[in-house]
């Protein structure tokens, strides 16, 4: 995949994020504060915040970020942001599955928060 044009950064959309936007990726003007990104995407794609962003993982240059907790991060020119929704948001997941996910993800705090948003009781 090519790099973003000068003065821009690239946003990659996966799974339901791609379906909702109708795109696999796009470029946005840089710099942009990370905490402003969600509002920008929701303005472009109404409902995106509630349907996708509130339960997704986000990476900036392959590093997972905690969007509510990373208020000081600014996305710079040529950065790459990935919006990664849960793999299967509509399935029932058992507590054992949750523990397996957490162990695989190394108890990543961001992943834990996303997993906690799911209904774990059958």
Automatic annotation (TrEMBL):
CDD domains, from UniProt?
Ubl_MoaD
User: Does NAD show up as a keyword for this record?
Assistant: no
Which GO biological process categories is it annotated with? Mo-molybdopterin cofactor biosynthetic process
What does the record note on quaternary structure? Heterotetramer; composed of 2 small (MOCS2A) and 2 large (MOCS2B) subunits.
- PTM section of the record: C-terminal thiocarboxylation occurs in 2 steps, it is first acyl-adenylated (-COAMP) via the hesA/moeB/thiF part of UBA4, then thiocarboxylated (-COSH) via the rhodanese domain of UBA4.
Q: Which family does it belong to?
A: Belongs to the MoaD family. MOCS2A subfamily.
Q: Which PANTHER family match?
A: MOLYBDOPTERIN SYNTHASE SULFUR CARRIER SUBUNIT
The molecular function terms of the Gene Ontology recorded here are: molybdopterin synthase activity; nucleotide binding
Identify the InterPro entries for this entry.
Beta-grasp_dom_sf, MOCS2A, MOCS2A_euk, Mopterin_synth/thiamin_S_b, ThiS/MoaD-like
Function, in words: Acts as a sulfur carrier required for molybdopterin biosynthesis. Component of the molybdopterin synthase complex that catalyzes the conversion of precursor Z into molybdopterin by mediating the incorporation of 2 sulfur atoms into precursor Z to generate a dithiolene group. In the complex, serves as sulfur donor by being thiocarboxylated (-COSH) at its C-terminus by UBA4. After interaction with MOCS2B, the sulfur is then transferred to precursor Z to form molybdopterin.
Which source organism does the UniProt entry give?
Stachybotrys elegans
Q: In which pathway does it act?
A: Cofactor biosynthesis; molybdopterin biosynthesis
Pfam families assigned to the protein according to its UniProt record, in alphabetical order: ThiS
Query: Which protein is depicted?
Result: Molybdopterin synthase sulfur carrier subunit
> GO cellular component annotations, sorted alphabetically?
molybdopterin adenylyltransferase complex; molybdopterin synthase complex
Gene behind this protein: cnxG
Question: Has the keyword Magnesium been applied to this entry?
Answer: no
Gene3D superfamilies given in the database record: 3.10.20.30
Tell me the keywords, alphabetical order. Answer: Cytoplasm, Molybdenum cofactor biosynthesis, Nucleotide-binding, Phosphoprotein
